[in-house]
């Protein structure tokens, strides 16, 4: 969820995503489970699959893969998130590192997944090349990211927060940069990979109350960065204003946000 390179923002992102890591792990990441399950299905994760999840966050996708019998490894820039990942999958290899310089040998994995991580790399193409390097012949690579903004109910909130954020690091492409079908095909082609298929998976952020929603939405690294720049109160008010447009009669929330994944053809 937060890995980049030495030339990029790994140190910053690792710190930001660690600050509210518990809230991310407990309140936000679980809503991504439908996307994780669909992605694991798409790359054929099962008994004995050697899986690497780059930008593994708090490890929920790895836990789901381990439950299928996979031999899982994870890499992320955020030590706070990795603490949760290690607790979720005891004994699995979890490394704090760089998505563009993976500390693994060539052809070490049968599948590499990147759930919301390639698009945050300083150089996404370099990150994809690294994923390809560590994937064995016949293996697959998955890139999952936000679906296009017009499909996401959370997009107006992300756009309002962007107005409060300091200028992004040079070269940072942003959350929606790769989500178009043509953009994904071109992205994979940049590493001499073909896309087997592209799918959208609906995830619903079903918060039980306002306090939980604010805590969950405040846990992501980019939102933490806005809070440090503009103030926590400004961020809270922005989140509450967004939530007011989605409150249900019972004062709960259901915010629908699809995620899009692309899977490579088997690597030769």
Structure explained in plain terms:
Residues 1-7 have low confidence and may be disordered. It contains eleven helices and seven strands. It starts with 9 loop residues before the first helix and ends with a strand. With 268 residues, it is α/β, with parallel strands linked by helices. The protein has a seven-stranded mixed β-sheet with strand order 3-2-1-4-5-7-6. The longest helix is centred in the last third of the chain and has 12 residues, at 232-243. Helix content is 38%, strand content 21%.
How does the helix and strand content classify structurally?
alpha/beta
Helices and strands, in order, run as HHHEHEHEEHEHHEHHHE
- Distance from N terminus to C terminus (CA atoms, Å) equals 28 Å
Mean pLDDT: 92
Number of strands: 7
Specify the CATH homologous superfamily of the domain at 10-153 and 168-204 and 259-264: Vaccinia Virus protein VP39
Instruction: Count the DSSP helices.
Output: 11
Name the CATH architecture of the domain at 10-153 and 168-204 and 259-264: 3-Layer(aba) Sandwich
Q: Quick one: CATH class of the domain at 10-153 and 168-204 and 259-264?
A: Alpha Beta
Major beta-sheet overview:
7 strands, mixed
Apparent shape: globular
Low-confidence stretches: 1-7
CATH topology of the domain at 10-153 and 168-204 and 259-264: Rossmann fold
Q: State the helicity in percent bands.
A: 25-40%
Radius of gyration from the CA trace? 17 Å
Provide the β-strand percentage band. Answer: 15-25%
Instruction: For the largest sheet, list the strands in their spatial order.
Output: 3-2-1-4-5-7-6
